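Changelog note: in this version the structure field was regenerated for every chain. One regenerated record is shown below for reference.
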Amino acid sequence: MAALAVSAAPATTPTAIASTASTDAAAASTDAAAAYVGAPGDVVASAPSAFHPLPGQPTGTKAWKIHYRSTTAAGAPTVVSGTVVVPQDGRTGPRPLITYAVGTVGMGDSCAPSANLPHGTAMEANLIQQLTLRGWAVVVTDYEGLGTPGVHTYTVGPSAGHAVLDAARAATRLPEAGLPADTPIGIMGYSQGGQASSWAAELQGSYAPELQVKGTATGGVPGDLREVADFNNGSFGSGLIFMAAAGQDAAFPELKLDSYLNPAGKVLVAGMKENCVAINSIAGSFKRISDLTTRNPLDQPDWRARLNQSRLGSAAPAAPVYQYHALGDELIPYGVGRRLRSDWCARGANVEFDTIWIGEHVSGVITQSLQAGNWLADRFAGRPTHPNC
C-alpha cells in the first residue's frame, strides 16, 4: 500500500510525565469517544506534557497532551490524541501555528508522537524544534487509532486529513496555549505526513474553511497507494504494504483483510499492529504479497475502491502548496509526486514543486526542512508565491 518510513520510536511505552489523575481523566474521556457529540476540533481532555528533541534537552517551550474530537474516513465522530507545543519566548500578540504531520512511526500505541516527544525519543523532534525556534507554535497529531483505542488507520487519507485539521482547531481552542481562532496556520508533513498534510490541504476548504491556512509544505507524498504498493512489492520497503493494508482494514472492517492472509501473513500483521516502524520494516522486508496471502486483496474491487478513496489530486487545495520529492526516492516513486503536482495544477491550484536532486526518501525530510520552513515563513509574511505549474 505505501512504504512510508521516516521516523522510528521505541517499542516499549515511555514513562508518562503527566499526573496519574490527568492521565486517567484523558483515558476516561477517550473511552467515551463514541458518545461524544461535540464539534470537530473540540478539546476533550488535556494535561501538561513536555517537548524535548533529545532526552533532557531544554527547548524553552510549554507543551500539553490533548485529546480532541475528529472525524473518521466514514464520517463518524472519533477522538484523536496529539501534542501542542508553544514557545515561551516572551512574545505577545498572535504567532503562527503549524499543524505538523509526522512520517511513519508504526502502529503500536507506544509509537505515537505524544508518547515520545516528552522524552526526546521522537525522530522528527529536531525538525519540529526548527519551527519553535522561529517562534511558531506547533501541534502534532497522533492520527486516528495511534495512542487511542483501536488500530491505527495507517494511510487512510481522509482520516489523516481530518486529524491534521482538527488538531489545528484544538490548539486554538486550548486556553492555555493562547492561540486565537484567527491564528495564521501552516500545514506541514513528509511521507505518511506528506499524505496527511496533502489531504488536509485538499479538505480544508470544505471541512475547515474557518481556519486561516496560509499554505501547505508537503513532501515525499504517496499520492496513489496502489502504485506505491506495486513499486514496493517484494522490496526492502514491502513490510509497509502490510502495515497499510492493516490500516485500511481498521478503517473499513468490511474489507476483511484476515480472510486473505495465510498463517504467516496473520502472524506478521498481528505483530505489526503492536510494534513501531523499525521492527515492522525489518519483519516485512523483501516479502511479496503472494508470500503472505491466499489471494491478493488489492485485486479485489472493494479494496481498489477504498484505495482510490485515499488517492490525492481530485481537489485543488484552497491555499498555496510547496511540494517536494526526491528524484531518487526508493520508497515513493518520483513519478507519483509529479503526477500529484500535475493533477493539482490542472485544477487551478497554486503549486511550487521542487525536485530534490541528491538524496533519497528518508533524507528528503531533513535536507528540505529549512526550505519548507522558509516557504511557510514567506506565506505568514504575505509575500508573493512562485508557482511553477
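Spot check on this record: The first strand starts at residue 43 and ends at 49. Residues 38-224+314-380 form a domain with the Rossmann fold fold (CATH 3.40.50.1820).
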